[in-house]
TrEMBL record:
One of its GO terms (molecular function) is transmembrane transporter activity. Pfam families: MFS_1 (PF07690). One of its GO terms (cellular component) is membrane. The chain crosses the membrane at residues 12-33, 53-69, 76-95, 107-129, 136-161, 167-189, 201-221, 227-246, 267-288, 300-323, 335-356, 362-379, 399-418, 424-442. The keyword Thylakoid does not apply. The keyword Transmembrane applies. Keywords: Membrane, Transmembrane, Transmembrane helix, Transport. It is found in: Membrane. Gene3D superfamilies: MFS general substrate transporter like domains (1.20.1250.20), Multidrug resistance protein D (1.20.1720.10). Residues 11-450 form the Major facilitator superfamily (MFS) profile domain. It comes from the Bacteria. It is a multi-pass membrane protein. This is MFS transporter.
């Protein structure tokens, strides 16, 4: 299909619908998990893995998804990813226990790893040059809108129709989006040999193994005094896996990850700042919902918890749209540094409001945290991509996505340890500590003169150029 052809509008519309569904799924499940815990008999560890399975599968495969879009065709990869995500949503809707739930969430993560870069590349390729920036902006806006409204959508559907209907509706929207993309033109299947040609299987396995082992090691921190092997064994496994991954990548001419990118501070620092933002967002959504729907907490239902999170959604969505303009005016260093300090202060205020059971105080604290998180969420990926040559944009965007997903997974795990020890105030203390780390990273970012002006698309549960 030539850029700007008759199917360009259909591709953009279908991709936006698909990303709206993917973004909403990433946060809607947070509102449904307290109800799912009772229906499926889930423990706290299984609740965390219901989020981490998705994040780790996405983190491990997102780079592969971007390469597949380049090699086999963006629209084909996007359709395959959306269909896999829809199938996974159906598996979750029919789940009868933890095993089927976690299998479905892992498949959802795999689907997202292909749907996100594939759909963005399809939109970029289909749009005419003068419309490309607007089309990418619509794609990014749909994903961010779904991510922001997910808690309310999840709460309403869980209360009105049950949590299974939430995943059924998600599957239906994804099928419609996949159909729209598929019908926009002929889908040419690549030769079978090209699908696996040059695939870095060893690097992929070592990277995935290292990520999973790291999460198990962090989970072992809570029982390290009584069961030290639960910490030491996965920690050693993680170290060995990541060392073998580095060795495998250095030996390949076309590695899964170009390790030289990780040696570039102008790339690594903003990528780390974006990971800090996702580290804070996801555990706040999960553990606030658990606390809000606990009879010993706020005692709200799914709708009430979703409504309580609307200030967070408003701050996140509103400031994310303004973030790039503010960065050009103030510079990333001051903007993101100030945002991180705002998060620290808002976490303290939110903890006080939670202890007092003050709904206005909770609303104000969530609004400020959302505003603070939106700025690094919107600006950091642009900085990381602007630091590299255009020829490395595909791989670097995949690496930014992987860092973001991994940051969210680390946040869920460490937040779970804090929630078990001290409830929501403990989680907020962890988030404040992460924001202080983010402030330190922000001090190394460029000032106004070096801020990139080129627009870069953002993903709600991942980012791609």
């Amino acid at each position: 299909m030539s850029p700007g052809g008759a199917g360009a509008g259909r591709i953009t519309g279908a991709a936006c619908l698909g990303m709206l569904a993917v973004g909403a799924n990433g946060t809607a499940i947070m509102a449904a998990l307290p109800t799912m815990r009772g229906d499926l008999g889930l423990g706290r560890a299984e609740l965390e893995w219901a989020v981490n399975a998705y994040l780790l599968a996405s983190a491990a495969c997102i780079i592969l998804g971007g390469k597949a879009a380049d090699r086999t065709g963006a629209r084909l990869v996007a359709v395959a990813g959306l269909l896999l995500f829809a199938l996974a949503s159906g598996v979750i809707a029919a789940a009868d226990g933890a095993v089927s739930l976690l299998a479905g969430r892992t498949l959802q993560g795999l689907g997202a790893a292909f749907a996100v870069p594939g759909s963005l590349a399809a939109v970029s390729a289909a749009a005419a040059a003068e419309r490309r920036s607007a089309a990418i902006g619509a794609w990014a806006g749909a994903l961010l809108l779904g991510f922001s409204l997910g808690p309310l959508i999840g709460g309403v559907l869980t209360h009105a129709l049950g949590w299974r209907a939430l995943f059924g509706a998600n599957a239906l929207a994804l099928l419609v989006a996949a159909g729209g993309l598929a019908s926009a033109g002929r889908l040419a299947l690549p030769p079978r040999a090209s699908l696996l040609h040059g695939f870095d299987g060893a690097g992929f396995l070592w990277l995935a193994g290292g990520m999973v082992a790291t999460i198990f090691a962090l989970r072992g921190l809570g029982e390290a005094r009584h069961a030290p092997l639960g910490l030491v064994a996965p920690l050693l496994l993680a170290g060995a896996s990541l060392a073998l991954f580095a060795r495998a990548e250095r030996a390949r001419a076309d590695p899964l990850v170009d390790l030289r990118l990780l040696a570039r501070p102008d790339f690594l620092r903003p990528a780390g700042t974006g990971a800090v933002a996702m580290f804070c967002i996801l555990p706040l959504l999960l553990y606030f919902n658990l606390d809000a729907q606990d009879p010993r907490g706020l005692g709200l239902g799914p709708i009430g918890a979703g409504l309580a999170l609307l200030p967070l959604s408003a701050g996140l969505f509103g400031l994310a749209l303004l973030g790039p303009r503010l960065a050009e005016r103030l510079g990333p260093r001051r903007l993101i540094g100030g945002a991180m300090l705002l998060i620290v202060a808002a976490c303290a205020g939110l903890a006080a409001a939670s202890a007092a059971r003050s709904l206005p105080g909770l609303g104000l604290g969530l609004l400020l945290i959302g505003a603070g998180l939106a700025l690094p969420y919107a600006v950091a990926p642009r900085l990381a991509l602007a630091a590299l040559p255009a020829g490395q944009a595909g791989q670097s965007s995949g690496l930014i996505n992987a860092c973001t997903f991994l940051g969210g997974s680390l946040g869920i795990t460490l937040g779970g340890l804090a929630y078990g020890l001290a409830g929501l105030p403990g989680v907020l203390a962890v988030l404040a500590g992460a924001a202080l780390l983010g402030f330190g990273l922000a001090r190394t970012l460029p000032g106004p003169a070096r801020a990139p002006a080129a627009p870069t698309a953002l993903a709600g549960t991942g980012r791609s150029p």
